[in-house]
Amino acid sequence: MVDIGCGARKVVPEAFGIDMVFQSAADMVINPADIYNLHHSGKIPKADVVFSSHCLEHLCNPTNALASWAQLLKPMGLIILYLPDGDFYDNKGNREHVHDWKHETFLAWLKTNLFNSGRIIEAGLHVGEGLYSFYVVLEVAR
C-alpha cells in the first residue's frame, strides 16, 4: 500500500508513506510539484492499493495527480480517496483547499473526466459528530 499525504500517521504502519512535509511519517518526502510525477521516481514500490486522505482537494490538477497515482498500482489495483465534503465542512474557510467538492459532484466528475479504464467500487459519506468526509474506492484496470 502507498499512502499519499500520510501526515503524522500512515493509514497502516506497513504502508509506503509519501508526504510533502518533513515532520511526517513519510518514507519519502517530495517537492509538492512532484505529486503529479510519482510514477517516474522509481523509488516507490508498485502497490495493490494507493490511499490518500485529505490531499486531493489541495492539488491544482487532480486529474493528472490521479493518473500518476494509478501508475503506481499493480494490475486491477485500488485507489481509495477520502475528501472533505463541502456540505459538512467549510472548504472555503480553508485557504489551502483548491477544490470544494461534495460527494455527488465528485462522483460525477470522476465518471465524466477520469478513469475510463476503471470503475467506482464503493463510495459513501463518512459524516456525523466530528466527521465531515466522503470516500471513494476506485478499481483501476491497467
What fold name goes in the CATH topology slot?
A: Rossmann fold
Rg over alpha carbons: 14 Å
Judged by helices, strands and strand pairing, the structural class is alpha/beta
Discrete helix count: 2
Specify the CATH class.
Answer: Alpha Beta
Topology:
Elements: E1 2-4, E2 16-19, E3 28-29, E4 47-53, H1 62-70, E5 73-84, H2 103-113, E6 118-128, E7 131-140
Parallel strand pairs: 1-2, 1-4, 2-3, 4-5
Antiparallel strand pairs: 5-7, 6-7
In short:
By secondary structure, this protein is an alpha/beta fold. The chain has helices at residues 62-70, 103-113, and strands at residues 2-4, 16-19, 28-29, 47-53, 73-84, 118-128, 131-140. A seven-stranded mixed sheet has the order 3-2-1-4-5-7-6, with helices on one face.
Key words describing this protein structure:
142 residues; alpha/beta; Rossmann fold; seven-stranded mixed beta sheet; globular
Task: Give your account of this protein's structure.
It is a single chain. This protein has one domain: Rossmann fold. The protein is 14% helix and 35% strand. It contains 2 helices and 7 strands. The protein has a 7-stranded mixed sheet with strand order 3-2-1-4-5-7-6, covered by helices on one side. It is globular. The two termini are 17 Å apart.
